[in-house]
Amino acid sequence: xxxxxxxxxxxxxxxxxxxxxxxxxxxxxxxxxxxxxxxxxxxxxxxxxxxxxxxxxxxxxxxxxxxxxxxxxxxxxxxxxxxxxxxxxxxxxxxxxxxxxxxxxxxxxxxxxxxxxxxxxxxxxxxxxxxxxxxxxxxxxxxxxxxxxxxxxxxxxxxxxxxxxxxxxxxxxxxxxxxxxxxxxxxxx
Length: 189
What we know:
Blueprint: H1 7-32, H2 45-51, H3 57-61, E1 67-69, E2 82-84, H4 96-100, E3 118-122, H5 137-141, E4 148-151, E5 154-157, H6 167-171, E6 180-184
Antiparallel strand pairs: 1-2, 3-6, 4-5
């Protein structure tokens, strides 16, 4: 019996065919060079870039205004596509962006489990808990049980649970030099 291709396989395969050998070389680098964070539910970068119509609906429906659009100075490949910086405005994972995306470039998986958009990292030199000051603002702000815990009075991120929303970062009482930051998953190496 012939297997049906899903949308991702279809788009990726057609793009690779259209670009030929050059496509085979450049497609793997698209995710490798990404240091920014896409909204929840974003497809693999190559599928996302070919699916996103740059309509801006995701930005318009975001209730916390965390979603922004790249401008032309970011390059033609990224121009008009959405990104967010949970280090400035936390994402609430309300999934309004995915619900309203007309092309499914942002989509909620059938199981309802939206993959992480990034991961929080503790900056020990900036975190006052590492300077022996009792502080647990980030722990209390974290909406995911077990993602951020105190270990001997110091915050510790569990990458199995952290979704990269940024609630911990925006709650940090260190104003100029936050004790945590969220990093894009594809830039963790």
